[in-house]
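Q: Structure tokens for this one, please.
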Amino acid sequence: MKRFLRCIVTGFVLLLLTACDFVLNDSKISEVENGLIPNVLIDHEPKWNINDRMQHFNVPGVSIAVIDNYEIAWAKGFGTLNMNSLKDVKKQTLFQAASITKPVTALLTMILVENGVIDLDRDVNDYLKSWKVPENEFTKNEKVTIRRLLSHTAGLSVSGFRGYKPDESVPTIIEVLEGLSPANNETVRVISTPGEKYSYSGGGYTVLQLVIEDVMNQPISDLAQKYLFEQINMKNSIMKKPVPQKYSEQLSTAHNNEGNPSGSHIFLPDGSACCGLWTTAEDLAKFVIVMQKAISGKSQKIITNETAEMMLSHASSNGMGLGLFLSGRNRDMYLSHSGSNPPGFKCWLLAHKYDGYGLVVMTNSTMGGNIYEEIKRAVAKTYNWTKYKPMEYDTFDALLNDLQVRYNPDPEKSKISERQINYMGYDFMGMGQTERAIEILKLNIKLFPESANCYDSLGDLYIESGDTTKAFQCYQGAVKVLKIHPDRNKGMMYLIDGYKRDFPRIFKNK
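A: Here is the predicted structure, written as tokens:
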């Protein structure tokens, strides 16, 4: 009898704890949904509702998955699959992952490496059968390898692909690599010494796809299904195109800047390793958790801890690992990747390398980046992340003072950058707080007087506010700085041509 009562009490306690978890989770979901925020909060305002912001930015559909303590805390859809449809986005809704396909391909590649099928540092031409990377002056001493393809350091051309509309002919992978009709891209070739520098290349991942397909004698879509989607339980993920009928009711539609439907593009008929994945935020969160558990030693079901460490360590000068971007220092490090496919899918994944939390956001609009940043900050604040939370101040003057305290003439020691302050100014402008925006960008000029971009940005805000006289003075300042400090402003000299076209008076008598 005592044992029976003990079982009942234990069951009741577990049920109560589960109920508490649901209530707590619902509270956090509500906090995120109603807590979208700008980069800077003054006296706790403003905070926005996600549906209002989706309407503001012309984003019809959004899907979110939040990772906490190595688990999916929640996944939820918002809005509609299509602006002209009443079908709601749900957590099972598929979006094109675009370039987030690349880290998924990277994991598949590393599984093959672990199994001894391919070697990271061997010349890919040793594996390629149906096509070869053409040799040239750049490959005399250094070769294209799988490690270099994964880290975008192989020296290959073609950063990305436009894709093909449903009524257009879709090329084979060989036609893409050779730039032959009906392919709409240039040829994929080695244009710099392999291993010399980072250069983002969708063409490189297409070469990687052919290596895998030639070695395994199977389409990339089938291999991803067998070695990844089935093993990780990514049950709403597919690389094939056209997407199988069973998923047809779950597909979202891409939209342009105005929020009008613009369809979706095909990349390769048997799946594209660089940009062809259809998936959900929930499934991508499962992928992220696999990486997090492997790197922390909590699970080595898919890949070992050693392989995960190799993938999530710097392999190029810009912070690229093998398939994922890395930022931060020491133990406070984040892994990330974004995706952007024409004509209007944008998505992001972001996760802490060691601490088991993260976020996936998928949108069906070219304007999705605006709402992603606000969602990211809301999640970071709600779950108390160590990074990405908004800067909070009681008053605007306190913000201005803090920016000056954070600034240091030595870029290595400064805790604030010209770019961050610039974005801050545009954020305030976007919120309709013109006077604050102008004050922020005036401070940017004060802190970074040798930057033409600071003057140009403030000029743009004055144009927006209708003060053409002050805008003109800012553009004059930009020209002066460009002439005095050309080295400091490399890449900004294009401003001169624009000013000559739009404001020729600046150059009168000069």
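A few notes: Residues 112 and 118 are 6 Å apart (CA to CA). Residues 395-507 form a domain with the Serine Threonine Protein Phosphatase 5, Tetratricopeptide repeat fold (CATH 1.25.40.10).
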